[in-house]
Amino acid sequence: MTTNHRPSQATDAPAEGAPEPAVVLEDVHKRYGDVRAVDGVSLRVGRGEFFGLLGPNGAGKTTVVEIMEGLRRADAGTVTVLGHRPWPRDVQLLPRLGVQTQASAFFVRLTAREHLRTVAALYGADRARAESTLAAVGLTEHGDVRVDDLSGGQRQRLAIAAALVHDPELIFLDEPTASLDPQARRDLWEVLRGLKGAGRTIVYTTHHLDEAEELCDRVAIMVRGRITALDTPHRLITAGATTTRLLVPAERLPLPTARSLPGVLNVTTDGDVVVLETEDSGPVLAAVAEVAGLEGVRTRTPSLEDVYLQLTGTAG
Ligand SMILES: Nc1ncnc2c1ncn2[C@@H]1O[C@H](COP(=O)(O)OP(=O)(O)OP(=O)(O)O)[C@@H](O)[C@H]1O
């Protein structure tokens, strides 16, 4: 698909009198040898915004986030985070940031509670704050378990708690729900919504498209070091995915009949359903009703995942 998505916000000048954005990147580049990991990225993250960075493995997301965090220096371009340059490391800025990475370090001989109290103390936050953060990520019951005895998902939640315990203004979360079970994932969504409700700004990378659609105000989709789309999930879906899928029980709709229906662009099978793709579902539904009846027929409207797969060229 050719896309008319443009990272328009990326180059828009902020409105007169608008609050200063939390993050501004302008034409940022970063190479590792011959690899252009970040190849001219410009974007703004507003104060209080929940901003998602999506893209396939190796797209450059972590590098962009690490440049924002002050962990890596951009080769070129300008980077402003809460009004500061994050590189060289700025000690005024660090306590205002919360960072959770895939490789978070723990004091493994400590219990979860002791670990969090220690992190809190490093930032000058008190024990009550450590306790409330432990509760917010659902770890109160496991507070006395040693870090090396926690499950992967519990450790993940502890890493998130450690990023939040000093009540930072800007929070970076790198695939925070990667190893969580479905219930823990939903619980964490509530924690994240709570943070947003409290006015925090969140920059968030994930491979869960449903999660990005659910949580993010805007998402940027990166491919090979560049931003190929940047907008609200809703606008990306509306602009990018024009087809609807109708799912019909396969035993009632032979494939040749499905292919002959007017308005059907593509027919595939998925297990025991026939999937009809159409830009105009009304007439196709009417035709399906006539030849197969509507019992068990479902429609699937486009999702952020459909748009993502089109933009990243990994659609099946
Ligand atoms: N320290 C490094 N040295 C050399 N190349 C690197 C280094 N870090 C990343 N790269 C390369 O830069 C590119 C972007 O990597 P990056 O980790 O930023 O991508 P990503 O979008 O975060 O991927 P993932 O979803 O797998 O975490 C990749 O080609 C990667 O191999």
Features:
ABC_transporter-like_CS; cell membrane; 316 residues; Rossmann fold; binds adenosine-5'-triphosphate; Alpha-Beta Plaits; single chain; alpha/beta; 25% strand; 2 domains; four-stranded antiparallel β-sheet; globular
What would you note in describing this structure?
The protein is an alpha/beta fold and 316 residues long. The protein folds into 2 domains: 8-239, Rossmann fold (3-Layer(aba) Sandwich); 242-311, Alpha-Beta Plaits (2-Layer Sandwich), CATH 3.30.70. Helices cover 33% and strands 25% of the residues. The chain contains 11 helices and 13 strands. It has helices at 8-11, 61-69, 112-122, 127-136, 152-164, 182-197, 209-215, 233-240, 255-260, 281-292, 304-311, and strands spanning 23-32, 35-45, 50-54, 76-81, 97-100, 170-174, 201-205, 218-223, 226-231, 244-249, 264-270, 273-278, 298-300. The strands form 3 sheets. The chain has a 6-stranded mixed sheet, sandwiched between helices. The protein is globular, with a radius of gyration of 23 Å. The chain starts with 7 loop residues before the first helix and ends in a 5-residue tail after the last helix. The relative contact order is 0.14. Residues 1-12 have low confidence and may be disordered. Bound molecules: adenosine-5'-triphosphate. Residues 32, 35, 37, 55, 57-63 line the site of adenosine-5'-triphosphate (ATP).
Short account of what is shown:
With 316 residues, the protein is an alpha/beta fold.
Q: Let me know the average pLDDT.
A: 89
Rg value: 23 Å
Q: What best-fitting shape do the alpha-carbon axes yield? A: globular
> How many domain modules?
2
Instruction: Summarize the biggest pleated sheet.
Output: 6 strands, mixed
